[in-house]
């Protein structure tokens, strides 16, 4: 986001106070801010009472920067908290998920007692296959109920899952499997996308060629497509799970037992294995879901439209909602599977009350026009949420007017894979909302905006977002790399967690999140590092050097623009350049994921470098965003950047 754009937004000074009807019935009362501020540990202790414990904790926080322990002498089982306790408390017939397939008209309803049986059977199957407490299990699945069931079964045994987004390539999957030494993989034969099957297991087969320690693969039949089969390694889910007992006696684990790993892009080519532990994570997921989404488990049908391959799916499709016993919609398809009004038909059919999604999707739905939401009955909706990237006020207003019928509060929630749960957000019924602002830290969270030296900035000023006190769902580290954990997050500003985001406090002191200030890009709410994409590009035999930047994009928030110099081999010189550009885009898709495909690749004879040989990405970002160039005097050859600018103007863009 450019400064000028932000200034224009702030100038509009649009503020929406909480509506009267909401104030009267909201779960959150204004006093919770004061209560949490007066004694944050007591506040979180109270939130932890939402969990069922085998042994209740007597301790709250032990803090030895950067290592936190929350509720450490308590014991519990995450899957019991998500499932069994609801059945035991008489809510077994309540719907946990309305699962909606990619194909129009296909759905499945799963109650809490059905979920309990499915999780128990799967846990028994995993025991038979050799999964034990402390193991890591990779899950590479489409958005089908078995994905959630697998996650819950894994953690029920005290193993940790590492869910890898189904859109990631075989290479990306194998590097994640190797980094955390997963010995088991759970996957499906394929996935459906707009009615068409696409293979998934083949990527697992390819990935496992470099993962000799994976001895067991459990495969759900989803598409019925042909699959390559390795006898003794591969097992069909329906062969192994279906015949198991639907009873499983859980073991209880310490509060700080590892629950899961989730790989996310940092500023280097190697993704970080962020790991979370059990009780603190569950406590904050449930507390935030309860207050921010104002959950009324008896009447709400909540829809987090995200993939379980990302942290939003973990915290707000699986753990937070299930701890509360909520009823949810889980949707397999794309926003336009079966037509561009598919989402509105789902809202109408299941009478969704809460919708939570990413700004990119809102912008896409907005592009498809006002008529589609208008032609459906969306009156069941009472609250809307956004997550994953800054939301521009135009999209926020469209969401409010066309989806929320000017009647639903919008919660713009800021958080990260590392924070585990929402950190900065309005609370419906209490705080006002402003189009584009995440407003204020959640009760019990201490956030600040600081300058280069770590001093708080005043109202009306911008700086770096930091979190100044430990919180229950904070990551406990980067798997296998404590030094990187400390240096990435805790060394920049002593005593504070450095989020990597720019932020601004407006004149009222409310917080606006401005996006990453490091080399991390945010493409459609997906995090990717510039170095990761550069690394993929230079892995292609024709490429000598590559520099990648994230440029502002009207739909995807940011889009990848790559500047590439080629090796001067005879073969490349004769190649048709547009063919080569397409080949490079496909190459990146193969190495990382289709989401990492550059929007534009500019082939250039040279890159702008300082005299010490460092690529000036700042200038390339200016070029990519068509801005006037800043200071170029430190460049080794100032003409290079003008030449690239010229090349850029002549380029078309690719949008697939
Ligand atoms: O830059 C911020 C942006 O997404 C980053 C975290 O990405 P990830 O770990 O993939 O988690 C995304 C889902 C929680 C942050 O560093 N971000 C997330 N939410 C917002 C946001 N930027 C602005 N406003 C938000 N509400």
Name the features.
GMP Synthetase, Chain A, domain 3, binds adenosine-5'-monophosphate-propyl ester, alpha/beta, Rossmann fold, single chain, eight-stranded mixed β-sheet
Structure described in brief:
The protein is an alpha/beta fold and 656 residues long.
Any idea of the CATH topology of the domain at 39-91 and 105-293? Rossmann fold
* Most strands sheet: 8 strands, mixed
Which structural class is indicated by helix and strand composition? alpha/beta
Helix content: 25-40%
Please tell me the CATH architecture of the domain at 39-91 and 105-293 by its name: 3-Layer(aba) Sandwich
| Cα radius of gyration in angstroms | 24 Å
CATH class of the domain at 39-91 and 105-293: Alpha Beta
Task: Explain what the structure shows.
The protein is α/β, with parallel strands linked by helices and 656 residues long. Among the domains are: 39-91 and 105-293, Rossmann fold, CATH 3.40.50.12780; 520-651, GMP Synthetase, Chain A, domain 3, CATH 3.30.300.30. 33% of the residues lie in helices and 22% in strands. An eight-stranded mixed sheet has the order 12-11-8-6-7-14-15-23, sandwiched between helices. It has a seven-stranded mixed sheet with strand order 5-4-17-16-18-19-20, sandwiched between helices. The protein has a four-stranded antiparallel sheet with strand order 21-22-24-25, with no helix packed on it. α16 links the parallel β19 and β20 (410-413). The protein is globular and about 75 Å long. The mean pLDDT is 93. The structure holds adenosine-5'-monophosphate-propyl ester (PRX). Adenosine-5'-monophosphate-propyl ester (PRX) binds at residues 264, 311-312, 387-390, 412-417, 438, 499-501, 513, 515-516, 522, 527.
